[in-house]
Write a structure and sequence with these properties.
single chain; Rossmann fold; Dihydrodipicolinate Reductase, domain 2; 6-stranded parallel β-sheet; DapB_C
Length: 225
């Protein structure tokens, strides 16, 4: 499989490494080589089986439009663009391409989201109050994180759930759901030791997407990987 990786930050570099380890041909484009998506011409994109984007909220939409417009298969690991998800999904379907999106490509986080959804309503009925805290590296641009927002949505049965965002050091990602009653406290925690879990999930997602068309959420397909 030929993989085009957009973004040469810490996660993008790791995505490229993981894809190479899994036997795929990899080409990486950083921001300097792809200003405003200018490198993503139809002939260039056609040379790849899958595109994986780990860029920035400012760059991702331009990249998506360029790739999906020519029917490419795209995995998006970048967050902070979901207000445009409907439009990008419609473009992918119209051009008979493929789009896999997700706020977090860690299998552990996906399981955490399912647990959060299961515990929300019974704990709320028992009088528990919820809050979310997320910590990421100082260079992460969006706050709250996409994962924290997904957790908040998973806890829909828990009422209004506040999110506290912390940006410090080089933290890959720490998410804590806290449920507190007058009698006790329950903590649901996911701590990433590195970005490798995100990279492996994205590459495995790309392998899955390479034979498909349509629009998919990683949370719906991760058990198939």
């Amino acid at each position: 499989m030929r993989v085009l990786v957009l973004g040469h930050g810490k996660t993008g570099k790791l995505v490229a490494d993981v894809a190479s380890e899994r036997g795929h041909g990899v080409h990486v484009l950083d921001a300097k080589e792809n200003p405003r998506g200018s490198a993503l011409t139809a002939p260039f994109v056609a040379g790849f089986d899958v595109v994986i984007d780990f860029t920035t909220p400012e760059a991702v939409l331009t990249n998506l439009r360029a790739c999906l417009a020519v029917g490419a298969k795209v995995v998006v690991g970048t967050t902070g663009w979901y207000n445009s998800l409907h439009d990008m999904s419609a473009l992918a379907l119209r051009k008979e391409g493929a789009l896999l999106h997700g706020t977090n490509y860690s299998i552990g986080v996906q399981v955490m989201l399912k647990i959060a959804k299961q515990m929300a309503e019974p704990l709320r009925k028992a009088g528990y109050e919820f809050k979310i805290e997320e910590t990421h590296h100082v260079t992460k641009l969006d706050a709250p994180s996409g994962t924290a927002i997904s957790l908040q949505q998973a806890l829909v049965g828990a009422g209004e759930v506040p999110i506290t965002s912390v940006r410090e050091g080089d933290v890959p990602g720490l998410h804590i759901v806290e449920a507190v009653s007058g009698a006790d406290r329950l903590l649901l925690t996911h701590e990433a030791f590195s970005r490798r879990g995100f990279a492996e999930g994205a590459v495995r997602g790309a392998e899955w997407l390479s034979t498909r068309k349509g629009v998919y959420d990683f949370s719906d397909i991760f058990t198939e990987l």
